[in-house]
Design goal:
This protein is mainly alpha-helical. It has two domains: 28-354, Up-down Bundle (Cytochrome Bc1 Complex, Chain C), CATH 1.20.810.10; 358-392, no CATH class. 62% of the residues lie in helices and 5% in strands. The chain has helices spanning 3-14, 17-28, 42-61, 71-80, 85-112, 121-143, 148-161, 168-176, 183-215, 237-262, 287-294, 299-322, 334-356, and strands at 31-32, 235-236, 359-363, 366-370, 376-380, 389-390. The strands form two sheets. A four-stranded antiparallel beta sheet has the order 3-4-5-6, with no helix packed on it. Strand 3 (359-363) and strand 4 (366-370) form a beta hairpin. The chain starts with a helix and ends with a strand. The structure holds protoporphyrin IX containing FE (HEM). Protoporphyrin IX containing FE binds at residues 40, 43-44, 46-47, 50, 103, 106-107, 110, 115-116, 120, 123-124, 127-128, 130-131, 134, 205, 208, 212, 217-218.
Length: 392
């Protein structure tokens, strides 16, 4: 008897392998709605990136040490001496950015295709929790190399927590584990990054995918009028959709390796709590909130600022229960589509302002200094020879 037959008969003696086989075949050979295409690959892309982050994260853990004295040196060791350490560190750092981007594109796809509508409201709600969890990974992971930028960005980030009304001071102390960012903050962020968030995300992904399987992918029909996709017009999950996903995964590996080689993440200088570097900015995915908070400085404005940053998240979670229209097709949902486009444009615009604030830029040959608030101020005079004069 061949080896595969031995395994087969071993399993047949112990399990109802026909039932298991039928269940797997049903999933593999199912038909997806006819509009399923390239836009539907971002969920799986986020999933693969989550797995890649887990593998590269475990490799990093072999050498990483979560204390202020050792963290920076251990990252230097990983990059300079550990076998392929530079590669898995870069793939982890770039993977984080790409995972957040994939989750965002996936969210945008499900939003504009009305896939969050009944009966998939809870798939959307678990999705928003996944989005918040993914950003949490970015925030906590950023501090771990314990370099200047990470230390000060976390100081500024946790400072915003103190502006939350009533519980602000407590919240800031809770996040930092003390009055200032230090050894306790590093331990806390480490535990959240490598234990708490991975398990929460794993559980939430399992629920998200289970719900998605229960309801199947949304069609473009009106709420309540969805019918199972007939075999003749559905897209075969295997091999058609799986082939598309395979192409995207190959591209992902190419992009990750290219970015790691062409644009590696610097380790930077070790954290120095006594020296604040100029112009500390958070990662790109925090720039919109970072910029928005600036317009609400001051004691009474702070509350408004926190509100302005939390309302979009609250709206996002409850959106399927607010938008109760029956149509799914974007052309038939002008209000929801306009709200989506407006929200996206505002986020991109604020993010861009955050990115260029406190820098000098040139528009059509004229140099401008962009203030903290993002306003342009003309720079006049010979910049090279003497300090620039700023036109108010
Ligand atoms: C770690 C993050 C996430 C992972 C791994 C993930 C994974 C997936 C996968 C594999 C699918 C199948 C279809 C597809 O890929 O489009 C799916 C469906 C879905 N996801 Fe996610 N997702 C994540 C985050 C989100 C977020 C942030 C949202 C929205 C806020 C969301 C909302 C949905 C909805 C509504 C569906 C059903 C789509 C349909 O029926 O057409 N997901 N998700």
């Amino acid at each position: 008897m061949g080896f595969s037959k031995v395994i087969r008969s071993f399993l047949d003696d112990r399990f109802d392998t026909k039932l298991a086989g039928d269940l797997i075949n049903k999933q593999v050979y199912k038909r997806l709605p006819p509009h399923t295409g390239w836009a539907h690959v971002f969920g799986s892309l986020a999933l693969v990136l989550f797995l890649s982050q887990t593998v590269t994260g475990i490799l990093l853990l072999m050498y990483y040490r979560p204390t202020p004295d050792e963290a920076h040196a251990s990252i230097q060791f990983i990059t300079g001496e550990a076998k392929f350490g530079w590669l898995y560190r870069q793939v982890h750092a770039w993977g984080a950015t790409l995972m957040i981007a994939s989750v965002l594109f996936h969210m945008i796809r499900t939003y504009f295709m009305g896939a969050y509508k009944k009966p998939r409201e809870l798939t959307w709600v678990t999705g928003v929790l996944l989005f918040i969890g993914t950003i949490g990974f970015g925030f906590t992971g950023y501090l771990l190399p314990w370099n200047q930028v990470a230390f000060w960005a976390t100081t500024v980030g946790t400072d915003s927590a103190s502006k939350v009304p009533y519980i602000g001071d407590w919240l800031q102390y809770f996040l930092r584990g003390g009055d200032a960012v230090g050894a306790e903050t590093l331990s806390r962020f480490f535990v959240v990054h490598v234990i708490i968030l991975p398990w929460i995300l794993l559980g939430t992904v399992a629920v998200h995918l289970f719900l998605m399987r229960l309801n199947n992918l949304a069609t473009m029909e009106r709420v309540g009028e969805e019918k199972p996709t007939p075999r003749e017009c559905g897209i075969p999950f295997f091999p058609v959709h799986v082939a598309k996903e395979a192409v995207v995964m190959v591209l992902l590996v190419a992009v990750l390796v290219t970015l790691s080689v062409v644009s590696p993440w610097e380790i930077g200088e070790p954290a120095n709590p006594l020296m604040t570097p100029p112009h500390i900015k958070p990662e790109w995915y925090f720039l919109p909130s970072y910029q928005l908070l600036k317009y609400f400085e001051g004691s009474s404005g702070a509350l408004l600022g926190i509100l302005a940053c939390s309302v979009p998240f609250a709206l996002l979670i409850f959106w399927p229960f607010l938008d109760r229209g029956k149509e799914r097709h974007p052309r038939k949902r002008p209000l929801a589509v306009s709200v989506g486009i407006l929200g996206l444009t505002a986020a991109v615009f604020l993010g861009y302002l955050g990115h260029i604030s406190e820098t000098d830029v040139t528009f059509f040959g004229q140099k401008y200094h962009i203030t903290l608030m993002g306003w342009p101020e003309k720079i006049t005079g010979d910049v090279g020879a003497s300090p620039p004069l700023i036109d108010h």
